[in-house]
Amino acid sequence: MKLALFPLSAHLLPGGVMPLRIFEPRYQRMIAEAGDAGFGLCMWDARQGDELRNMYPIATRVRIIDFDRLPDGLLGITVQGVERLRIQHLWQEPDGLRVGEVEPLPLWQCGRLPRDQRNLAQALREVFSDYPEYAALYREPDWDDACWVAQRWIEVLPIPPEQKQWLMACEDYNPALNLLSNLLVASH
């Protein structure tokens, strides 16, 4: 599948919601052409010197769920993560828009959060409480779903992007839950 790519300094996973400000002409074109396929949201790789290839290989296909003209006149959109992707090939179009041939990765299977890891959901609730503008993006948080909780934590946890990429590339959410449990125990 061919998708336009939007590099950021943040990760978004399936089910995640993120507002974006669009101002560059190449990204305005990307939004205009997104249609049902959406576009790929990927993370900058600051270690990579090649400007064309300075993106990590695991991305997320997103769809636009809302848009508005912002007070400063820019286009504001809200996107939601649909599926994880692996960028296979990458090129740049004449206007600077990066496009990639991408391979969808299987969705993580949903499952109830194990009893001994429910503290992860409670800690995430505290993050939502501390950041109401972030919490407002999620009308119906699924605190009992291990996959949903793990994905939101991967998005917000201040860990190196290489570690987030490793977690995103895993076949399921269990490595993320194990890491989160260890981090939570270490912080208390």
Describe the structure.
The protein has 188 residues and is of the alpha+beta class. It has 2 domains: 2-104, Archaeosine Trna-guanine Transglycosylase, Chain: A, domain 4 (Roll); 115-187, LON domain-like fold (Orthogonal Bundle). It is 32% helix and 29% strand. It contains 6 helices and 6 strands; from the N terminus they run ββαββββααααα. Strands 1-3-4-5-6 form a 5-stranded mixed barrel. Helix 4 crosses helix 6 (174-187). It is globular and about 50 Å long. The model has no long low-confidence stretch (mean pLDDT 92). Pfam families: LON_substr_bdg. It comes from Aeromonas molluscorum 848. GO terms for molecular function: peptidase activity. This is ATP-dependent protease La. Keywords: Hydrolase, Protease.
Topology:
Layout lengths: L1 E7 L8 E6 L2 H9 L5 E5 L14 E12 L5 E18 L5 E7 L13 H13 L1 H4 L10 H11 L4 H9 L4 H14 L1
Parallel strand pairs: 1-3
Antiparallel strand pairs: 1-6, 2-5, 3-4, 4-5, 5-6
Keywords: Hydrolase, Protease
InterPro entries: Lon_prtase_N (IPR003111), Lon_prtase_N_sf (IPR046336), PUA-like_sf (IPR015947)
Organism: Aeromonas molluscorum 848
Work out the strand percent. 25-35%
Radius of gyration: 17 Å
**In which range does the helix fraction lie?**
25-40%
The CATH superfamily of the largest domain turns out to be LON domain-like
Please count the beta strands (DSSP E, at least 2 residues each): 6
Q: Domain count, please report it.
A: 2
List low-pLDDT spans: none
Q: According to CATH, what is the topology of the largest domain?
A: Archaeosine Trna-guanine Transglycosylase, Chain: A, domain 4
Numbering strands along the chain, what is their spatial order in the largest sheet? 1-3-4-5-6
Helix/strand/pairing category:
alpha+beta
Pfam families: LON_substr_bdg
Organism: Aeromonas molluscorum 848
Protein name: ATP-dependent protease La
InterPro entries: Lon_prtase_N (IPR003111), Lon_prtase_N_sf (IPR046336), PUA-like_sf (IPR015947)
